[in-house]
Amino acid sequence: MGVVYYQYKSEKEICSMPVPHAFISVSELKQLILTSGKHGHGRTHGRAREDIIIFNAHSGEGSFNAK
Asked: Is residue 51 classed exposed, middle or buried when 0-12, 13-18 and 19+ CB atoms within 10 A define those classes?
């Protein structure tokens, strides 16, 4: 099992998402995030998928917008 860290552009908090395998596609990861309890509450309800930033937690490199 692996862990992916993600952050909304409008937030300072970095969230983590456990993933079932060492590799996961961006679309599968977005689906996990959208169905997690950290998405869709209060003011965050209806956030666009493009608001998620995915990066390498060990190096801090490779940030990109998950579209």
From this structure: middle
